[in-house]
Design a protein that fits this description.
mainly alpha; elongated
Length: 127
């Protein structure tokens, strides 16, 4: 028969481990948030640098936003597939001429592995 001291010790250990897990998860969430911001900053920098390489007048914000809105309207329209293919073709031609990586369809992330990892981490907390 288990004694109350043993039970109390195990409960204390469990609470400590649960607290440690929460602290670790908080650090991971902070790191993920920071990394996500870095990705966004890098993406925006890449876009700005690429726009400059086109020779488009970067200081003409009104024209730039107007062109983007026009393109957005076109890719959301009835002829979206042909417009999107045309834009990809234009980009790839430009990329080749300027030594930029050509457009490729993004790979599907393996969310099963991520889900398994989350399940594993969350399973320590109990119900």
């Amino acid at each position: 028969m288990a004694g109350t001291k043993t039970l109390h010790r195990l409960e204390k250990k469990f609470n400590f481990l649960q607290q440690k897990q929460e602290q670790t998860m908080a650090k991971i969430r902070q790191e993920m948030k920071r990394t996500k911001k870095e990705i966004e900053a890098q993406r925006l920098d890449f876009i700005a640098q690429t726009i400059k390489k086109t020779g488009f007048p970067i200081d003409k914000t009104v024209l730039l936003i107007g062109a983007v809105l026009d393109a957005k309207e076109k890719i959301e329209g009835t002829e979206s597939t042909s417009i999107i293919n045309r834009y990809i073709e234009l980009y790839n031609d430009f990329a080749t001429k300027h030594g930029i990586q050509e457009f490729e369809e993004p790979e599907e992330e393996n969310t099963e592995v991520i889900d398994e990892q989350n399940t594993e981490v969350n399973s320590y907390g109990g119900e």
